[in-house]
Write a structure and sequence with these properties.
The protein has about 150 residues and is mostly beta strands. About 0% of the residues lie in helices and about 45% in strands. The chain is elongated, with a radius of gyration of 16 Å. The mean pLDDT is about 90.
């Protein structure tokens, strides 16, 4: 399982002209190379998010995740939840936006068995709100797993 620490900074919009379908943008990551399986290396993925009716944050006891990441190597999907979003800023008339930072521990990023000299992967990322509206999909830059 892919371990990820999720940090989310959310602000309430002043004027709501944002779609009720969530949107993600400005995806980036750093660094782009880590030692595969290393407990000392970490990849950080950043993206901006917006949702016009502010219904982000699925029930962590449920089966609907907030963030979905598909590994380019095998199509496996990892689901994650946002941290608890303060209900005081959740106003469907104002919408919600913020920045999400995913922390991927290199200890959990392993090369495929037939790639002994390292590996390369990227993730397709999207989010879902509580109404199960899916955002657009963004693809990370390549992540290089060094032996």
């Amino acid at each position: 399982a892919l371990m990820a620490l999720l940090m989310l900074v959310i602000t309430s919009c002043h004027k709501n002209d944002v779609s009720n379908i969530p949107n993600i943008s400005a995806l980036s990551l750093r660094p782009n190379a880590v030692r595969a399986g290393s407990s000392d290396d970490t990849v950080f993925i950043f993206f901006h998010l917006q949702d016009g009716d502010a219904d982000l944050g699925n029930d962590p006891n449920g089966t609907n995740y907030d963030i979905y990441m598909t590994d380019s190597r095998d199509g496996s999907v990892q689901g994650m939840f946002f941290p608890q979003i303060d209900k005081r800023i959740e106003d469907p008339t104002k919408g919600i936006e913020g920045t999400c930072t995913l922390k991927l521990l290199a200890a959990n990023l392993l090369p495929r068995p037939d790639h002994t000299q390292g590996d390369t992967l990227h993730y397709d990322i999207y989010i879902k709100d509580r109404a199960q509206h899916s955002s657009n999909h963004l693809t990370t830059p390549d992540i290089y797993l060094k032996p």
